[in-house]
Amino acid sequence: MKSKRYFNTTGFCMPERHYMIDPLRNQKIIFDLIEKTQYFTIHAPRQTGKTTLLHELAHRLNKEGNYISVVFSVESAGYRSITEEIANKKIINSLYSSSGQYLNKKNCPIPPEKYTKDLTLENYLIDWAISQTKPIVLLLDEIDSLYDDVLVSVLRQLRNGFQIRPKRFPSTVALVGLRDVREYKTKVRPSEVSLGSGSPFNIKAESILLGTFTKEEITELYSQHTKDTGQIFLKEVVDRIYELTGGQPWLVNAIAREIVVKILNEDFTKKITLDHVESAKENIIQRRDTHLDSLIDKLKEERVKNIVSAIINGDGVLFDNYDDSLLYCRDLGIISETKPIRIANEIYREIIPRVLNRNLQDSIEEEGETKWYIKSNGKLEMDKLLKAFQEFYSENSEVWLERFDYKEAGPHLLLMAFLQRVINGGGRINREMAVGTGRTDLLIEFNGDKFVLELKLKRMPSARQKGLDQISRYLDTLGMTKGYLILFEIKPSSIIPWETRVKWEDISHQNKNITIVEM
C-alpha cells in the first residue's frame, strides 16, 4: 500500500513521501554549467531546499546515464582544531560512504583503506576519475563549515584538479552551503593564508542563490494535498500564507502541516480558514521550532545586530562593512532580497522583536483578571493603553534600555513588548520596518478596529514635523484618518527631565487626526 504523503519540515524531501515541487524546476543554468564542465556554487539559507535539490540532481544525472554524480557533506571536517591530514581523511571517508547511495559498486571510488598512494582529496579524485568512463559531477555540501587551513587546502586541491578535468578529475564540482564563495575568505586568517588570487575559488563560473517559493508554487504544492485528500487551500488562505512566510519553503510547509495535522487533526472534511492560518502562525512562533531557533541564534552576531537594529528603528546605516553585513543577512534569509531593506517575512518580523524583548514581556504581568485596556463592548482602548505605556516608560525605561543587547532599538522594543498583550488577547500587530525610512509603523488590528502607530526617535529637531508628514502619508495609503505618532527622546533624563518630556497632544494635520505621544 502506498504511504500517504505529508508536508515535510525535517530533512530533505522525497517525492514518494512528501508534498514537494520539482527543486530543479528553475535550474536550467545548473544543467548548462554541467554540460560546459564548469565549477559553481549554490547557496541558500537553512531549510530552503538545498539538500533536496542536490539529491534530486544527483539521482537525475545518474538515471539519465551521461554522468555519475554523488552528493556528500564535508561537515565532519568542520571544526577549528582539525589538521589538514585528518580533514582529508574525514572528507574522503564521507565521499566514499555517500557514493554507495547513488552509484553501483563499479562506479564508486576505491575504499579509502585500500588506497595505497598519499591519501589526499586531490589524489583520490584523480584516481577515481581515471577509473571511470563517464564524467563525474561532484556536489560538496556544507562547504562553509570548513575553517582556515582546511578550507584553503580543499579549495586549492579542487582548483588544481580543475586544470586536468574531465578525464582525470571531476568534470563539474558544485560547492554548496549557506554562504556564497565570496564569503569564504572571511573564514581564513587574512594575513597568513592566501590562495594567491582575489577569490579563494577563482575558477567558479556562477554563484546560484536558491530563491523562495512564489505564490503560484505554493498553490501548486498545496494542490497536491488537495488531490490526495480533497481538502482545499482556498486562494485567500494561500495569499495569507504567502504574506506570512514570504515563500520561505520551511515556513510554507510548517504552516500547512500545523493546520492539517495539529489543528484539524487530519480530518480532511474540515474547511481550512484564515483563522486556522493565524493560529498556526502563533503556534509555530510560540513553539520556536528548530528553524526559528537557528534564526534567533544569528541575532547575537554583530553583523546581524547592526542590520536588524537599523531595520527596527528605520535608521540609515553608517557603520563600516555595511555591504558585507547586508549580504550576510541576505544569505541567511533574515532580510529581503529587494529594497527597501526589511525583515524577510511577516513571521520573522513577528518573532524577532518578541525574542529581543522576551525578558521584558515576561516581567509585564496583568493586574488581576480584568483587562483594563478593553472596553465593556470588547473594543480596545488605545489611548488608555498608550498613556499606561508613557507612565511605564518614564518609570522603567532607563533600567530596561541598559539591559537590552539591542540598545539602539530599545525604545521601539519596549513599546512592542508592552503591546504584546494585544496579540495575547487575540489581536494582531503588523510591523512595517525598513532601513532608511526614519520610522517604524505598527498597524494594530483588534476586534474589528484598526490603529496606526508610528514610532520615531527624536534624533533631530525636525523629527516631530517629519513624523507628522510621514504618518499622514501612511494613513493615506491605508485610507484612514486617525493615527498615533510616538516620539522617543534619546537624550537622558538628566538633560531633559521626565516632567517636561512626557507629553500628549491631539492635533489636526493634513486633514488627519493625529495624537502625538512624547516621552
Automatic annotation (TrEMBL):
<protein>
    <submittedName>
        <fullName>ATPase domain protein, prokaryote domain protein</fullName>
    </submittedName>
</protein>
<dbReference type="InterPro" id="IPR027417">
    <property type="entry name" value="P-loop_NTPase"/>
</dbReference>
<dbReference type="Pfam" id="PF14516">
    <property type="entry name" value="AAA_35"/>
</dbReference>
